[in-house]
Amino acid sequence: MKQNEQVINKVKDALVQAGSSFREDKKEAYCNAIINETLPRAKWALETILENANVAERNHSPLCDDTGIPHLFLEVGPDRNITGEFLEAIKTGVARGLRELPGRPMAIKGDDNQRLDQSGGLDEDPGALLPAPIIAKPVAEDVIRLHVLMLGGGPAIRGKTYRVFHKHNVSVVTDEIISWARESVALLGCSPCTLAVGIGRSQFEASSMMIEAMVYGNYNVQSDLEKLITEKVNESNVGPIGLNGKTSVLATFLKVGPQRASGVRIVSLRPCCCFEPRITSVLL
Amino acid sequence: MKNIVTPITDEVINEINVGDMIYISGYIYTGRDAVLPKIVKLIESNTLGQAGIDLKGSVIFHTAVSPAGVGPTSSNKLEIEGNIPALSKAGVKLHLGKGELSRKTVEELDKYNSVYAVIPPVTALLGSKILEQKPVAFLEEGMEALHLLKVDGFPAIIAAAHGKTIY
Question: Which CATH architecture has domain B2-165?
């Protein structure tokens, strides 16, 4: 069956853009952080990260050598159809994008045991890196829009998905998020972070909400809860790349999903590194 | 910004202080979790020279070298930080990576007049400052093999020197 070349090329270009550029609202957030920092080494670190983004965008080259695992979020309008062939075309576009960026060859070969202990070796083809399972969401707009996110390993190591007993008090939940974030941002080394937080009824739903938070988050539009979390974590003074300073966190992207009638909330936190969310959106 | 050119002498290290912002130029090695323990075994068996490795006055950048470029990994990983003392004793003058090192490692660095610098994870920018690159040893490790880079002005900040640390 012939795949849709137009779809493949759009996905390929989106992946390259996600891995090599900052969105405009993120550039603005960095410019504001540079103005606000008073510690010279913190200011220098922020300026260097922004300069890196400009070079990467100009050269269409990776922002970071950990180019990340592709995660895909698909918006589907009411009169649109998604076929297996269409999903295969997206997958092919991802592989081509990884080869063009180029992505770091990170696909582990072998059976279950070999993939776990890495004894099967690495596939030299950057395009062999499979994307994570696609998340699909129905939307009112009559479009098919794909969001391509590239998720690096450092934030995955420091991220956390766990239950919080809320005691019928929002502050109990936010205090826990702030506590987790302070610890993880300090360990990450690649701050300033953007905190992606999802809250749901199960580990799967909370993680999905965390991805959705990255998709719809905006540095210029912050809710009171998001502002509170950012401010409290910034009091830790970790600063850019751990060199101290005011900017440990640029912003918080929080998505609260449906909740269970119970005393527990499942929270998923990803301390996105200084380049994340690496994301681009494209209409297919 | 201070300019540091490899090979680095003890006199240059003596003039470096915590918090100094530097540019590194010249030939530098790269190595991380997979290869640094192997380098230390060569040191212990006195076979570094046979492998074509000269650590006197050298820099080791904690990174892989892949088609995507270079960028620091966390230097406080067990197999990286744990080998910093032996590498310093063998002549490495500057360890380049990211993240906080333990008090014990900071003291070991001081003992051998070696320093630790943090480099921002700025792959695109660093790529524009790499003039040459080649694998040197343990090629079977692929992107984690010991590589030699010729660089022009890698930006970094001294995070540990003379028993003091920025953290």
Answer: Alpha-Beta Barrel (3.20)
Element (H, E) at B87: helix B84-89
Which B-chain residues 127-146 have CB contacts (< 8 A) with chain A? Answer: 127-128, 142-143
The C-alpha atoms of residue B10 and residue A257 are separated, in whole angstroms, by 59
What are the pLDDT digits (tens) for B110-161? 999 999 999 999 999 999 999 999 999 999 888 999 999 999 999 999 999 9
Listed residue (A103, A101, A106, A84) closest to A3, CA to CA? A84
Structure pTM? Answer: 0.93
Which of A49, A102, A105 has the CB atom closest to B120's CB atom? A49
Let me know: does B96 contact B28? Beta carbons within 8 Å: yes
Look up the ipTM and state it: 0.89
pLDDT in tens, A72-95: 999 999 999 999 999 999 999 999
How many C-beta neighbours within 10 Å does residue B57 have? 18
